[in-house]
Design the sequence.
């Protein structure tokens, strides 16, 4: 699947999802299928806590993939509280900027989903 097809599939997932957690699961599965491994979570606003997670630590410390990257993207609600999409992605080769673009796009689509669902705050969510 090329980048455009992947982004189109992320749009489809976000448009048809009935909640953030199911959308996270599907996007995580899609990214893992394409690149090797993925862990996606939403962290609510908290000073310095966005990346403090045993799951993130475990993913990045695992030796399953020679390249393991950590990417973040902001998610906002109508009240402008910003949460963070945290994405850990493992691959067998250094993918360049494509993963950053995909995570940023996924964050935008999840923001749109939160707005469509009229979520005023974003709670912790993990795609497990």
Sequence:
């Amino acid at each position: 699947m090329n980048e455009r097809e992947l982004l189109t599939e992320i749009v489809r997932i976000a448009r048809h999802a009935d909640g953030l957690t199911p959308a996270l699961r599907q996007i995580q599965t899609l990214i893992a299928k394409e690149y090797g491994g993925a862990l996606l979570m939403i962290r609510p606003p908290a000073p310095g806590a966005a990346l403090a997670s045993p799951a993130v630590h475990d993913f990045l410390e695992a030796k399953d993939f020679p390249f393991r990257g950590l990417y973040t993207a902001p998610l906002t609600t109508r009240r402008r509280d910003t949460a963070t999409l945290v994405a850990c992605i493992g691959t067998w080769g250094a993918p360049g900027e494509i993963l950053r673009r995909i995570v940023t796009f996924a964050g935008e689509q999840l923001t749109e989903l939160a707005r469509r669902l009229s979520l005023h705050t974003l709670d912790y969510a993990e795609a497990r």
